[in-house]
Amino acid sequence: MAAGPPSSPPYLPYGRQAIDEDDIAAVTAVLRGDWLTQGPTVTRFEHAFAEAVGARHAIACANGTAALHLACMALDLHPGDAVVVPSVTFLATANAARYCGAEVAFADVDPETGLMGRADAEAAIARAEAAGWRVRALAPVHFAGQAADLDALADLAEARGLAIIEDACHAVGSRRANRAGASIAIGACDRSAMACFSFHPVKTIAAGEGGMVTTNDDALARSLRRDVSHGMVRDPAAFQDRKAAFGADGGANPWYYEMPAPGYNYRLTDIHAALGLSQLGKLDRFVRRRADMVARYDERLAPLAPFIRHAGRSGGKPAWHLYVVLIDFAAPGRDRAAVMAALKAQGVGSQVHYIPVHHQPYYRERYGSLDLPGADGWYQACLSLPLFPAMTDGDVDRVVAALEHLIKA
Ligand SMILES: Cc1ncc(COP(=O)(O)O)c(C=O)c1O
Asked: Which parts of the sequence carry N6-(pyridoxal phosphate)lysine (predicted)?
């Protein structure tokens, strides 16, 4: 038989989901059942997630953006309030505050790790107060899966009477080392009001679209549950219009609900929850595989320093969402677009995480141009390389070989 054309190795995107037959069976079981939404699979996913991170409550929602918006609503943020947000993040962290009319006090980040530290947050608070805003919350981002320094930020928040909303969209399965050296799951909310997660397909576990907010605070949990479904209240103890709510026998009318203020339809469906729950069962394996690949990348890339070096590390036990390298793209012949195109030609995807959000036209128009040199330094150098559980060691080597080839060229 004649040999066919040599097949090129598969294209490696910077991230992608890992779905197997179990996941497919879990989703089809829901499709064959009675509840496509507002059913028991959402509740099971919430319980399993709360248990996995060690939080009292977990509230599932449509995506990570909805999770952040619900968290901002639960803090009752209003115009005149402000939230401190690191500029190196996805748009959603900042936009969630704006959905409530609150201002975004952009903070700088460490140009080696992409993380907001205490001094960065303090500088942002000072700028916000000079602008006349009332700072209400810090929203640290556990960038790439590595933990921000929550103890330092929580000390600051406590001293200033601020809440912390952790943007843990990158950090499903990550653990941080606290000051006493204990390993604590991100999402345990031991030093924050709430933590928000995303189950977008490039994240550590996938639900298609999906999000979760965890908290240990009963009142915040009630608010999150109310606003994830139109602001509807069904707890008789909370009814305001007693006459309409209760029948002659003193029992709550079975059809009755109240809406103290409008919420949203941010519900997760049971179809998505089935996939999320099934994936949650594989989280430890995914995290281990990601850690192995990160170790291999580190080792194989070491000889390419100082041209290419991996981004700085914050400690703890990250569930690596991204593998980011820092490259001096300002050096002659190392234009980033050309590097990305050359990698793509060799079947290697890459991405930039992120364009600092304060540079977005909407925010530039609102706040003018801000001087955040750490965020700009990060942006000028960062490049995310492929990292997902189905990659083989050979795939990692192929990415490194492609970079080596570029450097030699
Ligand atoms: C840091 C960060 N925050 C928030 C989000 C929003 O999550 P979702 O895409 O699920 O709405 C993302 C997702 O890309 C993210 O990376």
From this structure: 203
**Domain regions of the chain by residue span:** 21-280, 283-408
Closest-lying ligand 1 atom to the alpha carbon of residue 92: 4
> Tokens 């490039």 belong to which residue?
202
Nearest Cα residue to atom 8 of ligand 1: 64
- With contact defined as beta carbons under 8 Å apart, do 227 and 266 qualify? yes
* Structural contact between residues 12 and 395, judged by C-beta atoms closer than 8 angstroms: yes
Fold agreement (21-280, 283-408): no
Strand (E) or helix (H) holding 382: strand 382-385
Q: Letter for the amino acid at 90? A: F
The pLDDT tens digits for 263-273 are 999 999 999 99
141 lines ligand 1 (CB under 6 A): yes
Q: Whose CA is nearest to atom 14 of ligand 1?
A: 90
Residue bearing the CA closest to ligand 1, atom 10 = 64
For the Cβ of 140 lying below 6 angstroms from any atom of ligand 1, the answer is: no
The answer, as to whether pTM is greater than 0.85, is yes
Span 83-131, pLDDT tens digits: 999 999 999 999 999 999 999 999 999 999 999 999 999 999 999 999 9
408 is catalytic: no
CATH number of this structure's domain 283-408: 3.90.1150.10
